[in-house]
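To the wet lab folks,

You asked to see what we're planning to order before we commit. Fair enough. Below is the target structure as tokens, and below that is the sequence we designed to fit it. If anything looks off to you, flag it before the synthesis order goes out.
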């Protein structure tokens, strides 16, 4: 039977793939401003970004935060969890700003300059890409630790630990 944490990692990677695709689209928009804004594309991103981000954050919490102890010392866990929580709040707030900007752009009522819109989009997708790469590295470390864990709990090691 497959480990439910590993299944969560697969779901998480799927969310990351979608977020990275949307980062590519946001980069294209930023690169070609003040081009014609595709209203349907802005609408799709506006409707889907927050729910996708929330799903991603829930999966991160359930599948990564719950097993961080495999790769961190106890003293590091509280700080790591706090840092991750603050990062998710920042991501959510930035995504809300992106959604508002995309909505106002597609409706032709954005009050920001093209430079400001480009900066906002770049800030979001650069931050999101860094976040995803960081989380993927943590997943790789956790997967290695999970693979090594059964070996470290062999009867011989368990017996040595109990006698110590």
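Sequence we intend to order:
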């Amino acid at each position: 039977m497959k480990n439910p944490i590993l299944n969560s990692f697969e779901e998480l990677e799927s969310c990351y793939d979608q977020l990275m695709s949307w980062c590519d689209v946001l980069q294209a928009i930023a690169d070609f401003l003040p081009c014609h804004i595709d209203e349907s594309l802005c609408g799709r991103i506006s409707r889907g970004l927050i729910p996708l981000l929330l799903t991603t954050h829930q999966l991160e919490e359930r599948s990564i935060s719950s097993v961080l102890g495999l790769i961190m010392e106890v003293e590091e866990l509280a700080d790591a969890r706090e840092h991750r929580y603050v990062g998710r709040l920042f991501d959510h707030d930035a995504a809300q700003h992106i959604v508002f900007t995309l909505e106002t752009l597609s409706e032709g009522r954005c009050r920001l300059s093209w430079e400001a819109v480009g900066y906002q989009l770049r800030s979001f997708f650069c931050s999101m890409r860094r976040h995803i790469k960081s989380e993927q590295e943590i997943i790789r470390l956790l997967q290695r630790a999970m693979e090594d864990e059964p070996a470290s709990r062999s009867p011989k090691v368990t017996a040595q630990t109990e006698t110590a």
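Structural context that might help your review: The chain has a mean pLDDT of 85. DSSP finds five helices and no strands in the chain.

Thanks,
Computational group
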